[in-house]
Every structure is written in C-alpha cells, then in structure tokens.
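Notes from hallway chat w/ T.B., transcribed later so I don't forget. T.B. wanted the structure written out for a chain they're using in a teaching module, and asked if we could keep both sequence and structure tokens in one place. Agreed to drop them here.
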Amino acid sequence: MSTRKTGASQRKPNASRVQLEARIISAAEKAFALTGYSGTAMETIAEAVGISKQNLIYYFPNKETLYRRVLRKTLDMWLEKMAFTEDPDASATDIITHYIRGKLELSYENPDGSRVFAHELINGAPVLKDYLISHLKPQFEKDVALVRQWTSAGVLRDVSPEHLFFTIWAATQTYADFATQIQLLLGKKKLQKKDFEDAALFLTDMVLHGIVANSP
C-alpha cells in the first residue's frame, strides 16, 4: 500500500512551524508598536523570540515581509469586528452597541496591533493603502449604506454615517493607542478589562443618545 501523501498534505505546515511563526509575528508586533518600522531591527525581533537572525530570515526573508504580515494580521482581525452584524433580527441599537464593544475588545486584546496600525496610517499607509482600498473600503461603504437606511426610516437622526464611524474608531482606538495617557490620568499601571467595560457603557450611551431618533 502506498503511503505517499497528497500535494495538499505536503503543503500543510507542521504544528511547530505554525507556532514559531506565531511567536515571531507576536514579537514583531510588540517591537513595531514600540519603535516603529524604521526603528526596529530584525536582530531585536529574533532575540525576543529566542532564535538566531539567520533562523528568523528563514521564515521571513526581510523586515518588510514581516511588517506586512503583522499589518495584515491586525487588519484581518479588525475586518471581523469593523463590520456591522448581518443578523436580520437585530435592531439598529443592538448592531451599533455590538460594533462599539467589538472595537473596544480589539483595543483590549490587541493593543500592540492597534499601535502598529496607527504608525502605518500616520506615515501615509505606504504598505496598507491598496489593502485598505480593496478590503476595508467595500465593507465601510456597505455599513454606511445601512446607516443611511436607518436614517431614511426615521430610526436614527439625520447624521453623517461616515463621521459616525470615524468618531467610533477614534474613541475606541484611543484606549490602545494612547493607553499610557489614560493610565497616568486614572492612576493605574495598566488598564484592566473593567476599564474597557466602563468605556463600552459610556461610549455606547453617548453615541446612541446622540443619534437615535427621539432618544430621551
């Protein structure tokens, strides 16, 4: 009996390689978040992982390849959270509440990824620009259209859908991108999950009272 593996099986990476690549990406994310792309050296990432630079280059041949992988990972995670739920039975307020909480969860669970993303955008999105246009923009336009349906139906006040999203993004991402400032002002060494829960309650209340028609 032949024990020859199929092409698909041969191409499937083994578990140890997947785990090591995940550790490399995590270390790179932290390094890029702290010192930016230009200030990060491959040696620093390799040292954080506990491997040689030569071994790192075997998996990621250069810094740009690794940087792109980190950015794609973050944006792919965001695309899952930065889209309105398609539950036909959910109300506008339920969908917006879920959206705000999802964005805050990302700031809590993946603050380094948020900071890398912020660095990239501040520098003009030289790596992500095409990806943002091809992946984020279609979802954004779909969600904007849904908000317009709600305003036309009288569920929401006549607000700008685009600026609604920009405001939510800015308000939620600040808990990752400017966590140090918030920690200092709150007198905390690190923001805890309850801080994000408090933020979710406040932001949801503020947004909904500002845009829901006939809101008390």
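Follow-up for T.B.: Residues 129-152 form the longest helix (24 residues). Might be a good example for the class.
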